[in-house]
Amino acid sequence: MDQMTAPLKQTAPPDRRTPLFHADAPAAPSLARHRALDLLAELAVHDQAQTPFTIGLFGAPGAGKSHALQVIAKRARGLAEAAGADSPFLDHVIAIEVDAQSLLADAERGLAVALREGLLARGSKSLAARLDARALDAASDPHAAAQDANQQLEDTRQRLATEQRSLEDLKARRGRLNDAVLFEATNTQVDDFVRRNRKQIEGRLSDFGFAGDAKTVFKTLVGDLADRPGPLPRLSAFLSSVWTHGGQARLLIWAGGCFLLAYLLDLAERTRGDWLTGLRNAAEGAKEPANWLEGHASWLTFLGHAAFTIGLLCLALNIWRAARFTIPLLQGARLLKGEVEKRGQELDGHIAWQEQKVAQLASEMETQTERAQTAERRALERTASGATPAPDLFAGARTDVGASARALSPSAYIDAIEAGLGTSGAPQRILVFLDGLEALPAQQAAAVVDVAHRRLDRPGFVLTMAADPERLAAGWGGGGEAATRMERYVQAPFTVRMLRDEQASIAYAHQILGAAPDVAELPPDASSSALDYPIKPVETHLLGKLARFAGDTPRAVKRYLNTWRLARPLTEDGGALALMLALDHGATAGELAAMGAAMDLEAPDAPLVIHPGEPRLAAALTAVNALRQSPLTNGQAHAAWVVARDFGVPTT
């Protein structure tokens, strides 16, 4: 019997765990479980991610944006809860889910209410609740806000002074690294060299008149040699040892004297006729000695040669002693140089990191200085007006938050929360997940996004929103204004479009029908982050080549590199991804069309070829191929384009 036409009958008890009818709600089965969502969650709570920034989940209605938003929120909470001392993730993060409909009447006030609800959700005794209490004081009393701002400014100033001292100490250590390696570090290569050759070193130092501990003297000489200026320190060290150390000058004097004596004897032999004649004529009794000298004139040659030979021996002995003394020093200097270069690279890394911390603190201090000045002006204005401080604006139970918030100054409350983030005992970051924009009219949805960006675009905040880009663009009036706002507001875009192929549709259908096995969700691993994978030097070189192609403004280049860093773990071909992201970020319509025409999927293994007419695109492909073992193929390019297009800012 045909199984498709067989009579329906109950063959087994129904599985009450599987829904019979699935609602169109975020909790319903969805395909929005993409590796990129895990990366976005890691980005939201990563301790090296600079804030503020906005994650945008874009897609058409029904694409699974709300489910994706919940996936990111859940994983971000899990990573923060699992974060330990050595984890790259922050361990004190507040995640707040906000329904856009609650912001419809007054978006700014609604955000303040949502923030307070999120802080109080940790409990009245929690550190988050303490931050809320301080924010309430600042929002209701400008004098308290000014005092708190000045205290934070002073704390930051002290931290900056401490970090600057640390930076100066690191630079000082870098400047005296030679001495530190020689006399402070233990088990260095120089120490090992001295231990293995101690007797020889002691003997040679003793020959040159050096007294004291041979190890200390040797290290001092090695340090002096390493500090010698000029392009030929080894030659200068050798020449110095020829005459400056014990016994060497005496040998040079002996050699010079012997050479002078040899010269005089040779001169006497060559002019003996003249001076012998002069000697005979000088006195009658001098003839006999003169005759004797003339008969033994060959002695002058012998003695001259002997003197010259002795001079050469003295000079050779001097040079041999100098070489014998210098060679161990040169070996020690070479070992010292290798040790210093290795430790110098480590110190340079620490110095660069410390300089970055000092720059960040200096920028933070400037911001806090401005905030303190603003708070003091508000306090003076309140005093001059004679107005009484506002009451506790959020007093009462949480159910009264919305009603009592009518008297709240939202900007003052959010300012106070920002000022308190990251301080001792306070949350380190606040994640705001904004959903429900599709339930609002286009203009109101766009207005809510405007307010959310304006109020949350501050350090310590990460906004994640799910939106239909066409709906937002319509609310902003479309055109260039909509594109500009989208690009300025969203730093980490991701397009949710999971039904890429037939297999994905089949898997989704099986999931809804209950035919797919349940997959146990493992707890998040907070010990490491895929975003921390080191960048290869060849990738750095290629990204530098393609950065101009991606855009000609600092923001465009920064967005391009940030997007590549975020999407890099999704593919093994970072070069192809770099090219496609550059194309997505900065290509002209003609270049996009040329790339689309070039990717011939009927020949996936054939090399990608850009047709003439687009020199920038061709040059970019050449830069990619120059760093590959084989040319980029059509299939590789298309696979990278599939990843890249998901991380582009949507255009309408």
Please tally the helical runs, counting DSSP H or I stretches of 4 or more residues: 26
Multimeric state: single chain
Structural class: mainly alpha
Provide the residue-averaged pLDDT. Answer: 79
**What is the CATH architecture descriptor of the domain at 36-99 and 428-519?**
3-Layer(aba) Sandwich
If strands are numbered along the chain, what order do they take across the biggest sheet? 2-3-4-1-5
**What is the 3D form?**
elongated
Largest sheet: 5 strands, parallel
Distance between the termini: 53 Å
- Under CATH, the topology of the domain at 36-99 and 428-519 can be stated as Rossmann fold
Which residues form runs of ≥5 with pLDDT under 50? 390-407
Rg from Cα: 41 Å
CATH class of the domain at 36-99 and 428-519: Alpha Beta
Instruction: Compute the number of strand runs.
Output: 5
At a glance:
This protein has 652 residues and is mainly alpha-helical.
Write a structural description.
- This protein is mainly alpha-helical and 652 residues long.
- Among the domains are: 36-99 and 428-519, Rossmann fold, CATH 3.40.50; 537-646, no CATH class.
- It contains 26 helices and five strands.
- It has helices at 35-45, 65-82, 107-120, 127-140, 142-175, 177-184, 189-196, 198-207, 214-226, 233-243, 248-270, 272-282, 287-295, 298-385, 401-404, 410-420, 442-456, 469-475, 479-489, 502-513, 537-550, 554-567, 574-586, 589-598, 615-625, 634-646, and strands at residues 53-58, 93-99, 429-435, 461-467, 492-495.
- It has a five-stranded parallel β-sheet, sandwiched between helices.
- β3, α17 (442-456) and β4 form a beta-alpha-beta unit.
- α11 (248-270) packs antiparallel against α14 (298-385).
- The relative contact order is 0.13.
